Structures are given as C-alpha cells and as structure tokens.
Amino acid sequence: MVAHDSASTILTKEVEYAINTYRLQSAFHFAQQITLENARNGPYGSLTVQIGTWNTKIVRTCRVHKHTGDVQALEKGEWKSLETSLKKYFPVSDNETSADSDTMRAWWTENGQTFNWSALPTELKENVLQFCVNQPYQHSITYYDRKKYSRQSKYQRGPHEIFHLLGQWSSLLRVSKQVRILVLRLCLKGSIEYPEGFRIGSGSHKDFARKIMRLGSYYQLVEPNSAPVKATSSQILAKRYLYSPQYYPGLARYATYAHAIRKIDIEFDYLEALHFFKASIGGLEHHRPSNYMTCDVFERLPYLNGVTIWLTRKWWTKGSYILFNIWHDTDPCTRTLERWIYERVAQALNWLSDVTIKNFMDENEERMFRDLHEAHQLSYKMTKAEHDDLYKDEGGGISLEEVVFDDLMMDRANLLSASDNARYCRAKDQGTPPEALNQDGTPVLPPKCRCAVPCREAFFDKPRSSRYQ
C-alpha cells in the first residue's frame, strides 16, 4: 500500500510538471490557468486526473511511458501525449487578450528565463519603450492642470508631468542611465502618443509661475556630472545655464525639466495677461507687482517652439482685478483689452513662429493678430550667425558721432511735443502720470467701450469655448 501511494505521488508530480511545461510555452498559454484539480488511482498503475480551467474541464487517465518517460493520456482507447490532449481542449490564440502585464510578469517569473535587453539595438529599445509612454488617464494632462485636480497625491512633488506620461512605468527612470536617457528622450522630445514633445498647461499666472519654478528645480541627470553640488563652482554653472541657456550651450548637462518644454498652453485673466506680456499702455507697467514673472521667462526655454494662449471667459469682478480694476463701471470694453493683449503678444513673441490665440471675439480680430505677428516676425529676422556676432567679445566698442541740434530740428520737436505738453498739464492737474491719459484728457484705464456693437452684447452674452472643457 505504501509503495502504491508513493507511485501515485510520483505520477501526480509528473502530470503537474507536464501541465506546467505546456503553460510555460508562451504568455498566452500561461494566461489560461490550467491546473490539476483532482487525482485518484487508476487501473494498472495509471492515474485518473481532472484537468481544467474556470470554464473547461476534462477527466483523463494518465500514465508515464516506460521507455520515453513522457506523460500520456488515454484518448478513445489510444494512448497519446498529454500535450496533444491539452492542445485539443485548451487551444491558444495569439489574439488572447488575457495576457496582460500582470500575466507577462508572472510568466517571466515562472519560466526562469532572462531577456537580453542590453543586446537589443537602440532603435528596438525605443520601440519597446514607446508603449510605456502613453496616456493612462481619461483626459489630457492640461485638463487636470487647469482643474487643479490631483489624480494621485504621490505625484504632486517633483516633475509629476513626466510621471503622468509614464503611469505605472515611472520606475523606468531608475533602471539604468541608458534606459533613463531613452525614456526621457521619448517624454521630452516626442513619441508616438505625444509627437509634439513635452507640453504643459496652466489656468492662472500663479500656477504657471509655480510650475516653471518647480520644473526648473529638478535636473534631468542624463549626462555625467550633471548634478550640481552646493557651495561649489558646479552650482554657479548650473544657475548660469538655468537663467541663460542660450548663452551657455556648453553647460547643457545641467539642464532641468523646464529647459525641455516644447509647448505651452496658458489661460490667464486679462490683467494677468497684460502684466505677463509687459503691456505699458496707460502706465500699466507701474502697477505690475515686483518680481512678477513675465514673458521673458520664455527666453529660458531653449526648446520652446509653440505657445497657445486662450483668452479667458472670466467675469471682470473675479480674478486679479481687486487690487487694480481694468473694467469700466458702466461700459467695459473687452475688445480693447484683447487688442492690447494680442498686440503685445505679437511684439513680444516675434521670434516664435507657432503662436496661437484662441477665443477671439470675431474673425476680424484674429486676422489682425496674424497680420501683426507676421509683420513683427519680418522685422525680427536674425540668423544664428548674426546672433553670435552680436554678442561676440571684440575687446572694444564703437565711437558715436555727436548729434548737433539746429534751429529747424528744435522747431519740429516743439511742434511735435505741443500736444504732449497739453496732456502733461492735464495730468499734472489730476495728479496722474501723462501716459495714463488719452489725448482728450480721459483716462486710458479702465477703457470705456466705444464699439459699434457694445462689448456687453458681443462678449458677455456670447458663449466662448475653453481649452480645458
């Protein structure tokens, strides 16, 4: 009896081994979860077993061939290999959707094999990593940035925009230096899912400033000696590249995630947009807060190639208008404010070709912006060689000719300044700077609506789209 039980135990292990061998052929075989559910003694030293999955079960009599040692199953009175029976009753298709990432991980753990990742060419490695850079959430990243909604609290610190792109594959950044370089190249320069590259979005100036400063405090760490050490020269060099990357291209090893930004989407309120693009109409620059982040920050983004600006829909009593009101009490003029904004955008971003403004009041305003931006671009054209020559150190300067004002030039200057003098006198009487008044003496800010169609009817009663809806 003992010998018989021992033989049954050995045969049971042989059957289990044959089933596991069949399952380990591929991840699709492994996903079927075929198990040995029951076994009992059969005639002539055989074993009657029940094999199955959650929806398919078979009962077969098994034995071990005395010459080959293979496990066989009795099929219609004929002994065949157990693998043949498993193929017949548990077929595997290459389109099996059950072979998910968890199944793949368990399959590689069980089969005892290793994959020679380092032997793959770089192109194939990038193709594999492409599937890790995806959109694991329902909406775009800029949607969540706009709504200030936290998907997972652990992503709130650090460059969580990169972590959102990778999802559960964010640990790839810690595998090795080569994998980190390849993954960051796909996340920052562009991939199949994100061909435009690293893109950020903000729904307020405060959020945008915090995001730029946060991304600028984390280094990419893709080159040797790219982590600056405090109280050393490396910290000084890193700060130089942080604020002036175009003048120190040789310090690119200290690049932060802010330097890798390719596209920007922003939606500021009107006063934030006027301050950000450094509007000076009506002496507005005197009301700009100190240390206010302006469009000059774009010069610190060497790879920036596109900016999308969404004109806001916010009501004038909200936002940053509490400290300084730019809305007229009775006749607010939205068209004038939008023109001030896109005129400054066209001038300040003349070096950038891909500049888009959304939510114009009408097609005429959009056409005016495009023409104005093209005109400023033509006046800006400067090649890289000309740029380098401009900032080249030649060890000296140039002499300027002395300007002599004759009587005719003085008379012309007096005629041109007559209207300015009158405006200056009116401003002095009112205790305001001259640039804060129009030629007729009325204040520039807040602008009063003089449009043919009042802005109240053309703007506030008209539904306008939003980037983040």
Short descriptors:
disordered C terminus, five-stranded antiparallel sheet, elongated, 469 residues, 38% helix, single chain, 17 helices, alpha/beta
Question: What does it look like?
Answer:
The protein is built from 17 helices and 9 strands. It is of the alpha/beta class and 469 residues long. It has 3 domains: 2-89, no CATH class; 120-312, no CATH class; 313-391 and 420-469, no CATH class. A hairpin with a 2-residue loop joins strand 4 (71-75) and strand 5. It is elongated, with a radius of gyration of 36 Å.
Low-confidence segments, given as residue ranges, are 146-155, 462-469
| Number of DSSP E strands | 9
What portion of residues is helical? 25-40%
Number of helices: 17
- Number of separate domains: 3
Rg, rounded, reads 36 Å
Termini, distance in Å?
Answer: 76 Å
Strand and helix layout:
Blueprint: H1 2-23, H2 27-30, E1 35-41, E2 47-52, E3 57-64, E4 71-75, E5 78-81, H3 82-89, H4 101-111, H5 122-130, H6 141-147, H7 160-166, H8 177-189, E6 199-202, H9 205-215, H10 233-243, E7 263-266, H11 270-276, E8 306-310, H12 334-348, E9 355-358, H13 363-380, H14 384-390, H15 407-416, H16 418-430, H17 455-460
Parallel strand pairs: 6-7, 7-8, 8-9
Antiparallel strand pairs: 1-2, 2-3, 3-4, 4-5
Give a brief description.
This protein is an alpha/beta fold and 469 residues long. The protein contains 17 helices and nine strands. The chain has three domains: 2-89, no CATH class; 120-312, no CATH class; 313-391 and 420-469, no CATH class.
